[in-house]
TrEMBL record:
Name of the featured protein: Hydroxylase for synthesis of 2-methylthio-cis-ribozeatin in tRNA
One of the protein's GO biological processes: tRNA modification
PANTHER family tied to this protein: TRNA 2-(METHYLSULFANYL)-N(6)-ISOPENTENYLADENOSINE(37) HYDROXYLASE (PTHR42637:SF1), TRNA-(MS[2]IO[6]A)-HYDROXYLASE (PTHR42637)
Record-linked InterPro entries: Ferritin-like, Ferritin-like_SF, tRNA-Hydrxlase_MiaE
Organism encoding this protein: Belliella baltica (strain DSM 15883 / CIP 108006 / LMG 21964 / BA134)
Gene3D superfamilies, sorted: 1.20.1260.10
Molecular function GO terms recorded: tRNA 2-(methylsulfanyl)-N(6)-isopentenyladenosine(37) hydroxylase activity
């Protein structure tokens, strides 16, 4: 059996561009902003799964797989809030999420419901993969022991979600087509990461 580190590393290899190592240094210096942005990432993750459940209620597998994911993301949200409270940081307003806005541009409109659902599942899978990569960096490099452990746990959890989304897409739609489209998404995402400004107040 592969260890978690090994299997996560393998999965992360799918990302075509690793995060710029400067990001984690800047993030650590701006941990308050990172926690705030992270809280909203968890909220958006939960909300987006709820939307998928509602919009694709006719696909049984969607509710089956995504209801537990909603619960986990909401649990993550609660835990980030605890970390904020403990440090007496306020949640504050959500930030404009340029990464997600750019990903949304790539979602193909039209096609069958299976195709539409697949687009959203692949987009979510990518966000999970990138988040997982960033949690890994945080867990390896920041000095705060408590946060280190927290990010390590999240890295594992988000890797699980990544698998949930990809496998769900492969069940819903033609596996070969899903794999081809996944490659296109990966290439597009690498381009986004290359062009996004590195900032210490964003998870992405
Ligand atoms: Fe999460
Ligand atoms: Fe997740």
């Amino acid at each position: 059996m592969m260890s978690w580190e090994e299997s996560t590393k393998q999965k992360m290899l799918h990302l075509q561009l690793p995060t710029d190592p400067r990001w984690v240094d800047i993030a650590e210096m701006n941990i308050k902003d990172i926690l705030v942005d992270h809280a909203y990432c968890e909220q958006k993750a939960a909300s987006s799964c709820i939307s998928l459940i509602i919009n694709f209620y006719d696909f049984e597998e969607v509710t089956e797989v995504l209801i537990p994911v909603v619960a986990e993301e909401w649990g993550h949200f609660e835990r980030v809030i605890e970390h904020l409270n403990k440090r007496k940081f306020a949640l504050g307003k959500p930030r404009k999420d340029e990464y997600v806005i750019k990903l949304l541009d790539f979602v193909k409109k039209g096609g069958s419901r299976q195709q539409q659902l697949t687009e959203h599942l692949l987009m979510n899978a990518l966000i999970e993969a990138r988040s997982c990569e960033r949690f890994k960096l945080l867990s390896q490099q920041i000095k705060d022991d408590e946060l280190k452990k927290f990010y390590y746990e999240l890295m594992i959890s988000e890797a699980g979600h990544y698998v949930n989304f990809i496998e769900l897409a492969r069940k819903i739609y033609d596996k070969e087509k899903v794999n081809l489209r996944w490659q296109e998404w990966l290439t597009y995402e690498a381009e986004i990461i290359k062009n996004l400004e590195i900032r210490g107040d964003r998870m992405h």
